[in-house]
Design brief:
globular; alpha/beta
């Protein structure tokens, strides 16, 4: 892996965290982001403030749907690898505007792949999602499982991105690893996600929107473990493959609230609501493949991760 890395979605939660991590290791990083208004621009500006002060960081505001913009970034910077994190995120919002999700997540990904082909950049890490598994009854979820039944436009757009990645590997010999992230949390987490929203509500004595009976569960994965997995994939990317990056442990919604109560000192005021269309019952990663082939080894359990997140939020939260 060469010393130059291009990150799309670089002002977001994972992208900005990865940029800081790579800069600390001495890599030269180009970050691109369009500051999608899904949440406040100021949050993203804060995310990249430290990176922008580093002489090895280059930031360009632009949209992955603009092929000329992507081509100029790739040809000018000539990265050894592209980490493609940019996407319209969120399962529930994708039901309201599926066209926008496919425009960004599929057309944008196609632009990146095509511009990589034209500029002869050969290596890509593609951020996929555990949502591609849909309501899979078999647990834990394995990369060998059938993922032909996504239950939201967001999930379908991520599956489409994986398919495009394979096509460009097959036709043009790009080396691509698709990483299926499982419910990433930690400092800088998006404000629309449960742990951020619940923490804010508990600290401010506000009601929590609580969907279902509390039995839905997620495989919460700390950002530090995700960054470790991405870094290992960047070193080993060769050919085409798909990997789960999770903790391989499930936490119910009810237990998550109890853990957050413990570390915030608050008492949850639950506003009980029906399950939402597009949400899945559970996510649970089989990470044996990533352990074996990437040496991926998550180490941050949910209680440690939530404790650290609440401490960060009290100082830096938004």
């Amino acid at each position: 892996m060469t010393g130059r890395i291009l990150i799309t979605g670089a002002a977001g939660f994972i992208g900005s965290s990865l940029a800081d991590n790579l800069l600390e290791s001495g890599f030269e990083v180009m970050g691109i982001d369009n500051f999608d208004p899904f949440y406040a621009r100021q949050v993203k500006e804060t995310n990249i403030k430290a990176a922008r002060a580093d002489k090895l960081y280059h930031f360009h505001e632009g949209d992955i749907r603009d092929a000329d913009f992507i081509g100029s970034c790739l040809s000018g910077f000539k990265p050894g690898i592209v980490v493609h994190l940019a996407a319209k995120a969120g399962v529930r919002p994708s039901l309201l505007d599926p066209g926008a999700y496919f425009d960004v997540n599929v057309t944008g990904t196609l632009n990146i792949l095509e511009m990589m082909r034209k500029t002869r950049i050969k290596k890509l890490i593609f951020a996929s999602s555990s949502s591609v598994y849909g309501n899979n009854d078999k647990v834990p979820f394995s990369e060998r499982d059938n993922v032909d039944y996504p239950v939201s436009p967001y999930a379908a757009s991520k599956k489409a991105g994986e398919l495009l990645c394979y096509t460009f590997h097959h036709l043009y010999k790009l080396d691509i690893f698709c990483l299926r992230f499982f419910t990433v949390y930690g400092p800088r987490q998006r404000p629309d996600l449960a742990i951020n929203k619940f923490t804010r509500a508990l600290l401010n004595n506000e009601a929590i929107s609580f969907y279902g009976d509390g039995s839905t569960s997620r495989d919460y994965t700390h950002i530090d473990d995700i960054l470790s997995g991405i870094r290992k994939a960047m070193v080993k990317v060769n050919g085409f493959d798909i990997f789960n990056l999770g903790e391989s442990n499930t936490v119910s919604l009810s237990r998550l609230v109890l853990i957050l109560e413990k570390f915030t000192g608050g008492k949850a005021l639950l506003k009980r609501l029906p399950l939402q269309a597009g949400d899945v019952k559970q996510t649970y990663a089989d990470i044996s493949k990533a352990r074996k082939l990437l040496d991926y080894n998550p180490v941050i359990d949910i209680e440690t991760g939530i404790k650290n997140y609440v401490e960060w939020y009290r100082v830096h939260g938004f």
